[in-house]
Amino acid sequence: MSQTRQPEIRRPLTLRDVSEACGVSEMTVSRVLRNREDVSPATREKVLNTARALGYVPNKIAGGLASQQVNLVAVIVPSLSNMVFPEVLTGISEALDDTGLQPVFGVTGYSAEKEEEVLYEMLSWRPSGAIIAGLEHTDAARAMLENAGIPIVEIMDSDGTPIDSVVGISHRLAGMQMADAIVAAGYRRIGFLGSKMTSDHRARKRMQGLTDGLATHGLELADTELYSGGSALKKGREMTEAILSRTADLDFLYYSNDMIGAGGLLYCLSKGYDIPGQLGMAGFNGVDFLDGLPMKLATIDACRHEIGVQAANIIAGKDQGGVIGGHRVELTPQLVHGDTMRAPS
Amino acid sequence: MSQTRQPEIRRPLTLRDVSEACGVSEMTVSRVLRNREDVSPATREKVLNTARALGYVPNKIAGGLASQQVNLVAVIVPSLSNMVFPEVLTGISEALDDTGLQPVFGVTGYSAEKEEEVLYEMLSWRPSGAIIAGLEHTDAARAMLENAGIPIVEIMDSDGTPIDSVVGISHRLAGMQMADAIVAAGYRRIGFLGSKMTSDHRARKRMQGLTDGLATHGLELADTELYSGGSALKKGREMTEAILSRTADLDFLYYSNDMIGAGGLLYCLSKGYDIPGQLGMAGFNGVDFLDGLPMKLATIDACRHEIGVQAANIIAGKDQGGVIGGHRVELTPQLVHGDTMRAPS
DNA sequence: CTGAAAGCGCTAACAT
DNA sequence: ATGTTAGCGCTTTCAG
């Protein structure tokens, strides 16, 4: 099932080809194709028709080199395999849509070294800006970002020192906020369920915030259950079964993300637990496709889409009063009580 | 909260800077940085150290122009807002990881016009290959792809005529396969629940396959319910309630995707339907994060990850015996009976 | 193994 | 409104 390609090696068309085909100088053709105003309607028409007829596609490599500007925005995220980052990317993509800027995505797999590689690769295309998840980078990556001479927006997290701009939420505060809400609702025996992954700094900070928050009320985690890999919903079930059979008197389960929380919720409902009376539950992220669950899981909205939009707007220079660099946007994550947590007592 | 950037406009470093800093010709520096063998270890060492110390990042724009080669692969998908495409992208990303090729993603929002724009934009970077979802394109887009002179892989779908290579499944067959399975299991009053979106060609083909398949058994759809937008899980609930209250004697519900199917399943379980006895249900895609549901939804695996991997391998020239162009990989979607469908009678 | 020259395809800056 | 000239920063090619 294979065929060789047509023998004629069609050299890609150049501006010169269009120029010759319509008897207008390369420069003018270039002007038309970049939608510059200073061309007569007649010439413009002629050039456009020829270009279209020939199927000319401009060479941005050459254009970028000549003009020293590239309409690309490097976007670097750890993963695409849960809904969190795709939602951010969607926000970025939307916000950039009418700006002439084009997002270019890279994935790091939560590895700092891979991040450094991807970053190097992307910066070598001399993008107009970069959006990168998190505030933790290798020294080399940090140096590259500092020296790139373009706007950098670190996103998702605001707990730390940004290189340039930052748009995110404080995961530490989110953890503390949840601790306060849990305690206010009268729960005392709290279990934590999360990922083994140590390189997910935001999850780590949430957990830290939670334990610190509990500590201010004189409490500590009663038990902890960690997982790695696999289907989150299923893992949530399994972990919940494990932690409840180990520590039967838990009265609250805090999940590091909504997916495992949803799995846990389905498990507890099937086992006939009284939620939220006997057992309270909460997750993190506020993913809205879980809306159809039998009960609405308590969670904290991580403002993912909004983060993408705002980060992109900073790069695009929108809404910024012309100020370049050094923006700090800390979004306030909203606690959604849902149905799985008692009202504050 | 803003600060102006440092006054010194640091011009990005060039090869010449490195060359001067270490007293080696630009050419040799270039050789070292491209890992070419023909440089003495001593010079190599010296150059590498200088480059690192200076924080030099090569300019791929200039490199690409000079060498007429760009290590980019354009990847164009309709959306990032359900797990389907991120999974494909993950497959592509993994397969390209050790090839020196870099994927660049573009999103079309299921719009043919937007696809054309994104494609134009991406081809203007002269990528080494392109991967694009679906076989339906505008005439202009098709012309661009044909004339790009690079390997093109259309993915996800195999019902139609590819431009160059194709990796996918037949959604029409998947629909027919499901029809056969439904009928074999003894169900007769079948409802269809899907999206209003007419531009999702694959969903349309699945539905067509389903109705055609049913027709071969002398059956037709008893009712249809369509949705647009919103949380899929919740929509699944609502649609299921609607269709069942309108047509109470349905004995099978076919959902156009697993997410709405999961919502429907949760609804039916909560209403005490006997699944799969009284009512059978099935979705499409085989998304594995639904594994933790109370029952495993019958579905057809769309091989998303595998499609990404194989498409990327074609572009990278792996596993192809050196053949360029014209590959046709039709994957066989597996029906997963799950728990929501009776065994064939 | 290393260097010098030429030019990739386009656009900034300057004519006209 | 249109054309001319001179590079952009790198790599190809050819010489040593």
Key terms:
homodimer, 345 residues, alpha/beta, 434 Repressor (Amino-terminal Domain), Rossmann fold, six-stranded parallel sheet, four-stranded parallel sheet, 12 helices, elongated, disordered N terminus, DNA-binding
Task: Give a description of the structure.
The first copy, chain A, has 345 residues and is of the alpha/beta class. Helix content of chain A is 41%, strand content 15%. In chain A, the strands form 3 sheets. In chain A, strands 2-1-3-4-5-11 form a 6-stranded parallel beta sheet. Chain A has a 4-stranded parallel beta sheet with strand order 7-6-8-9, with helices on one face. Chain A has a two-stranded antiparallel sheet with strand order 10-12. In chain A, strand 8, helix 11 and strand 9 form a beta-alpha-beta unit. The longest helix of chain A has 16 residues, at 201-216. The interface between A and B is large, with 69 and 69 residues. The structure holds a DNA duplex (16 and 16 nucleotides).
Task: Write a short abstract of this structure.
The structure is a homodimer of 345-residue chains. Chain A has 345 residues and is of the alpha/beta class.
